[in-house]
Design brief:
By secondary structure, the chain is α/β, with parallel strands linked by helices. It has helices at residues 5-22, 51-59, 63-71, 97-110, 140-158, 174-189, 206-218, 230-250, 276-286, 321-335, 353-362, 399-406, 408-415, 428-432, 440-460, 475-484, 486-497, 502-520, 529-553, and strands at 36-38, 47-49, 80-86, 90-95, 124-128, 162-169, 257-260, 290-293, 296-299, 310-313, 340-346, 370-375, 378-382, 385-386, 424-427. The protein folds into 4 domains: 5-95, Gyrase A, domain 2 (2-Layer Sandwich), CATH 3.30.1360.70; 124-170 and 254-375, Rossmann fold (3-Layer(aba) Sandwich); 174-248, no CATH class; 436-553, Orthogonal Bundle (Isoleucyl-tRNA Synthetase, Domain 1). 47% of the residues lie in helices and 13% in strands.
């Protein structure tokens, strides 16, 4: 497991501050957290801390004086090469060049586990994403949620969390009934019957395809019914789920568990015969978060600081979507004992965030255990022109059409390029370009293929990637090493902030650093075999880090291009 260098630097500065206080150079007062960040400019070093600036008022000393007292006492050696001071009071730390070079061997040896961390300590974590209603095919916006959720899960796994990916299947409630009624109408129409689809039904032509598939399976079995039977609706939903699974397979997204909403209303032995829904409602009542008025049952979220109460059960006795969500999160936290849950939702659900978090804690979920990520819309374009690709889904752009045109890797890369809370334009011309100079996804993949090619040529020349890394002294070599060493800290940052989109910018910077290296340094040179072997070792480490980054995005790492 990779160690966070930032934490080691923080400990060294904190220890130096303790020494300065113990020997009387600085007053002995509570210090609090020592913040360490990467230096903004390479000439300032590798890391910097502003702790002296923060303590100036408390210690009643000049920041520069405090910084000098601390820097003089920072222990240098294996990891830290130098600690210096810069106005108005920053402590700058340079890592030992020898230590940096040693990490090339650690990276190369780490392989597919390089940069993995133990921050999560195996904490049971669920990422629930996509979860589109099983009433039709996935569209492009669902693709953004799929990529965001899957890459987030990959980052959390790399950070040491035990992650389960889950898809919540809304197979109960009014939408499922409307879907069944629409499907029944389309089914009847195939036999020449006059059967208009419901006013709030699903007009997409895909419903005709579903009806035709069911007719081919069962013939006229459902014709003599007055309406959609549960069997017909269930079969239709199952076919949609199969289609959704196939679409997600094209995108390289797989789920560990598909959870049916209908199971929330079924009794379980662990709940003494109660269903999760009944158990969750019981907990809310016991805690005093339920009131009844206007014939409905309400969650009194105003007691928790919310602006208004929310309906759990309609006056008809049917649970609302919110009521089902409460039961679902009870099931996650209480029944299945997840310690952390991350829901990935479309931005149109922003109004449900606060109440869902409040209700999850009210039924027994841990405080702060639920995070909800919202993602904005995706707009397709070719150059300056907006594009509509789909017809068979009722005016929606199908995800499968996008992936078929631009490929899995470009789709995933481009979907992850921007923060989830920002709307994005997906440029099809750029995404379909095979020119690495135009297509960033191709550029990063090309860096991996280039590294693989260099290693193969080294083997052909009788040179193995096992050289002495202490021979690496050129600026481009050291810059590449520094770039590779950013990955563990980036994983920690993304896991903490739930922001996997930083991967794409890092991938480009890493690929550029590798390009700078092999452009400036001759890797294979028969007249300098020892240096060549060291540079091949660096190339292997770069290939490992690029592959690791691509895997976190969910992109293939090609050996050739």
């Amino acid at each position: 497991m990779a160690e966070l260098v930032r934490d080691a630097i923080r400990s060294a500065i904190a220890a130096a501050l303790d020494v300065a206080q113990a020997d009387g150079t600085l007053p002995a007062v509570p210090v609090g957290e020592v913040v360490v960040e990467r230096a903004q400019k390479p000439e300032h070093g590798d890391y910097a801390s502003s702790v002296a600036l923060r303590l100036a008022g408390t210690l009643k000393r000049k920041p520069l004086e405090i910084a000098e007292a601390i820097a003089e006492r920072v222990e240098t050696g294996t990891l830290i090469g130098e600690a210096s001071v810069a106005a108005p009071g920053f402590i700058n730390v340079r890592l030992s060049q020898a230590w940096k070079r040693q990490q090339v061997d650690a990276i190369a040896a780490g392989g597919a586990t390089w940069a993995n961390l133990e921050l999560g300590t195996g904490r049971a974590t669920q990422v629930e994403f996509v979860s589109a209603n099983p009433t039709g095919p996935l569209h492009v916006a669902h693709g953004r949620g799929a990529v965001l959720g899957d890459s987030m899960a990959r980052v959390l796994e790399a950070a040491g969390y035990a992650v389960q990916r889950e898809y919540y299947v809304n197979d109960a409630g009014s939408q499922a009934r409307t879907f069944g009624a629409t499907l029944f109408a389309r089914y009847q129409q195939l036999f020449g019957r006059e059967a208009p689809i419901p006013e709030d039904g699903y007009p997409g032509e895909y419903m005709i395809d579903l009806a035709e598939e069911i007719r081919s399976e069962v013939g006229e079995r459902y014709l003599n019914n007055d309406g959609a039977t549960p069997e017909l609706t269930e079969r239709g939903i199952a076919l949609v789920i199969e289609s959704i699974q196939a679409d997600l397979e094209l995108l390289g997204v797989h789920f560990d568990h598909w959870f049916n909403e209908s199971s929330l209303f079924e009794g379980r032995p662990s709940l003494e015969g109660q269903s999760p829904y009944e158990a969750a409602m019981g907990r809310l009542r016991e805690a005093g978060f339920v009131s009844e008025r206007e014939g409905a049952v309400w969650f009194t979220s105003t007691k928790l600081g919310e602006d208004k109460d929310d309906v759990l059960v309609r006056s008809s006795g049917e649970p609302t979507y919110f009521g089902s969500d409460v039961a679902y999160h009870f099931d996650k936290f209480v029944e299945r004992s997840f310690e952390r849950v991350i829901d990935v939702w479309g931005a149109d659900h922003h109004g449900h965030v606060a109440r869902t978090i409040a209700a999850s804690e009210a039924v027994g979920g841990p405080a702060g255990g639920l995070d909800i990520l919202l993602y904005q819309l995706v707009h397709l374009r070719r150059g300056e022109e907006r594009v509509r690709m789909g017809k068979r889904s009722g005016n929606l752009v199908l995800l499968r059409e996008l992936v078929t045109e631009v490929g899995k890797d470009a789709t995933r890369y481009f979907m992850l390029q921007r923060s989830s809370d920002a709307q994005m334009d997906f440029d099809l011309d750029v995404a379909t370009s095979q020119d690495p100079k135009q297509n960033p996804a191709s550029y990063v993949k090309y860096a991996h293929a280039r590294a693989a090619s260099i290693l193969r040529k080294g083997e052909e020349a009788g040179l193995r990637a096992d050289g002495d890394v202490q021979l690496l002294e050129q600026p481009e070599e050291l810059a590449l090493i520094g770039e590779m060493l950013r990955l563990p800290e980036l994983i920690a940052y993304m896991a903490e902030r739930l922001e996997p989109h930083h991967l794409t910018a890092y991938a480009m910077e890493l690929a550029q650093s590798f390009t700078d290296f092999y452009g400036a340094c001759r890797v294979i040179d028969a007249e300098a075999a020892e240096l060549s072997r060291a540079r091949l070792r660096l190339t292997l480490a770069a290939k490992t880090t690029v592959a690791r980054t691509l895997d976190l995005i969910g992109i293939d790492a090609p050996e050739t291009m």
